[in-house]
Amino acid sequence: MKNKIPYIIILGIILILAIAYGVKSYMAGSAGGNVVIKPTGETKSFVVTAKKFSFTPGQITVNRGDNVKLSLTSADVIHGFKLDSYDISKTLNPGETVTAEFFADKPGTFQFRCTIPCGEGHLEMTGSLIVL
Fold first, then answer.
1. 39 to each of 21, 70, 100, how far by Cα in Å?
2. Domain 43-131 has CATH 2.115.10.20
3. Cis status, amide bond into 46, omega within 30 of 0
4. DSSP reduced 3-state for 1
5. How far is CA 101 from the centre of its chain?
6. Radius of gyration of the chain (CA)
7. Where are the domains of the chain?
8. Residues 6 or more apart from 59 whose CB is under 8 A from it?
């Protein structure tokens, strides 16, 4: 009986490690870690206008899997548009349209903001992208 105890302990440790690894793999998959999101085939287009000290629209809602096309313009002075979560950074010159396109593969609410100081309300010049 004494000789079997070390083997039982070793088997118990192996079993615990196997269960822990399986749980970790399962959680990564369910949290989107290894899940492949397929495009829906839909392109959602939005015209976003920057003007001291706001973006119009200030909230953009799309579905996960959508292709998103933003046509960005400034109505007054030079502004910036930054959406960190989708690696988008654009400079918006007055009267010009700049396009940003991306695949909405991450669900959540993501903030976009002006990156070029444009006056006293600059820090409040934000908006949100909601991916359902």
1. 30, 17, 17
2. no
3. no
4. coil
5. 13
6. 24
7. 1-35, 43-131
8. 127, 128, 130
Summarised one tens digit per residue, pLDDT across range 24-80 is 544 444 444 566 777 777 899 999 999 999 999 999 999 999 999 999 999 999 999
Alpha-carbon span 63 to 83, nearest angstrom: 17
Retrieve residue 37's tokens: 């999101």
Nearest-CA neighbor of 98 among 27, 46, 60? 46
Q: Are 81 and 96 in contact (CB under 8 A)?
A: no
CB 70 within 8 A of CB 100: yes
d(CA 26, CA 18): 12
Sheet with 67-74: strands ordered across: 54-56, 43-51, 67-74, 97-103
Please state whether beta strands 126-131 and 59-62 pair in parallel, antiparallel, or not at all (unpaired).
parallel
Beta 67-74 vs 43-51: how paired, if at all? Answer: parallel
In DSSP notation, 90-123 reads EEE-BT-EEEEEEE--S-EEEEEE--S--STTGG
